[in-house]
Cysteine desulfurase (Zobellella endophytica), 404 residues
Amino acid sequence: MATDIKALRRDFPTLAQIVNGHPLVYLDNAATTQKPQPVLDALNHYYRDTNANVHRASHALSGQATRAFEQAREKVARFIHAPSAREIIWTRGTTEAINLVAFSVGRHFLKPGDEILLSTLEHHANIVPWQQAAAATGAVLKVIPLTDSAELDLDAAGALISERTKLLAIGHVSNALGQVNPVAELIRLAKAAGAVTLVDGAQAVGHFPVDVQALDCDFYAFSGHKMFAPTGIGVLYGRSEWLARMPPWQTGGEMIKTVSFEATTFNEPPFKFEAGTPNIAGAIALGAAVDYLQAQDRAALMRHEDTLLQQLLTGLDAMADIRIIGRPRAGAVSFVMGGVHPQDLATLLDMQGIAVRTGHHCAMPLMQALALPQGTVRASLAFYNTSDDIAALLAGIDKARELL
Ligand code: PMP
């Protein structure tokens, strides 16, 4: 199996670029990942050769498009070890997937005084929809605090969970700090109290295998674009018992069985939750990204990413003016440089062709809890990064320091 990273990089045309006079060092993978040629080919092939709407027409092209679209759903189900493809709902991304649950479960099953448990580490996409559901139902948000090392405080979580806890919505991997949260443990505690559980997997699926049955969560949400597929396509896994009970959230074509002016009957899940023409090309291309990942030796890719992470942490640790935030374990490392605005550092890195991200990383409550109003600089990895990329970042920080 291919674990030659230099060879794998050739599958990603975007990586072979010169940016600001330097070879691109792409370390903004938590924002979005680059796309391998088979994913680009899948998009092109769909639009060039099989473009037709799915499910409705009885002609050959529509049949081909429908088969490819539904096969992609099956690939995604296998990818996260869902019991059935009928538990895979296509969405625009993680944000839409969480909004769907916040609407169809949150607004329909929560009552005044019920508690929704989140954590301080959440992305805004896993905060705001619950805040809206709470405002609409009279439910209350509870937030798991952090320990001194900025990790989730499991003891505090245990104390917060009670029979009032009706819903746990928790990130698998923090996009802001690269921490892997103890989701299985939290799900176990929440389920014992009778709560529904949702995992925001946006930052997990591109880095390590996910098994929704082993996690035993009711919902798992992720975005294609964070795992080498296009933007505009994402996934909500939902346990079939829940999908059967939940009302639809958007309505219109595709999601119905029968319509009259008096009444409508709804289609079965997952179609009940997929109103309108879906992102057909995106779903097929996400299937191609799954195929691409499954064809690799994922354990070797994980080891490679971990080696890069350790190289980066060691290099940053050796810099007296750099403070690493939290305990990064997957994907992303957030840091600040004493007396330097994160944006200034990022601009100087960009001039050297190094792409990182700065600011609050869509986690303003987290930055507030960490007393970092200007946010951090975040370098985030994918398996196609190399030890040279990390060396370039570390040298780039040294150069920026000279210029500042
Ligand atoms: N949750 C997390 C942890 C994320 O990192 C992101 C994207 N930065 C999202 C949710 C939202 O994903 P999307 O914008 O693709 O809907």
